[in-house]
Amino acid sequence: MAKILGPFALILVGLAAIVAFNSFYIVRVDEQAILIQFGEAQSVINAPTPIVSVEEGEAGVPEYDNLNKENSEAGLHFKVPFVQNVAIFDKKNLGFDLPALEIIAADQERLNVDAFARWKIVDPLQFFRSANNERGARAQLNGIMIGALRKVLGEVETPDIISGQRAELMMSIRDILNDGAEKYGIEIVDVRITRADLPRANSERVFVRMQTERQQQAAEIRAEGEEQALRIRAEADKNATVLLAKANEESEKIKGDGDAQRNAIYANAYNLDPEFFSFYRSMDAYKNGVKAGTPMVLSPDSDFFGYFANKDGGN
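^ thats the sequence. predicted structure below, dont judge the formating
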């Protein structure tokens, strides 16, 4: 009898171990889970957002009458073995790399674009209902992201995509993605365009066109600069002419006043001593008129050198 009960006991112990193994599950702090029974969600564990009841949710949302609205924390949990199972989802940021895509920009240029997104599950219940798993979510994100890229990049020209407004464009793409991903319980954390290049066949042609446009812009800027320089020079010449005219006028006035004062002094000196004044004028004439090597033709009775023959200046 003992020989019969021995194997039976081992079988019972094995079955008990299997039942026990299938009765408990562990949810880590960086995970979130949904307890599922016969394909319907029963409770949500360690979700990042509160569970919304059917009455508070949107119209048309499938009802889960048995759903436990309490958001249990991470750790060890019990489930009914072989009846309930657990779907575990990541709480960390997840990556999604979009395959190389050809985009037509607003200037009708074709671009090869590589992009990726960082996303996370913020509503595991909605995620389970709509996407079911990460593979399904990536399939949905692929279509949404392609549409967002074509919409945003198709409204701007090639230079802005390549270098000009890339940061603003990525924010616009992220906003469109969030609008489309909300119904899947997903939040788009970040979007990055890793590459936006022209096809090899178009690169040279576009480069030449961009070079020509830059040269035209440079020529326009230089022309505007030259026009401004001419205007500034003309204004400066005008101001210089006015200043010189005023200065000449002032100098002539000062010179006239000086000549008047000089003549007055000469007149006074002449009245005081006419002979000395005549002598001084002759010496000044000798100083300014007689130069070395300068021939002079004078008549014998000229008074110019009168003081050389006579101290009184006469002949």
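Residues 157 and 283 are 90 Å apart (CA to CA).
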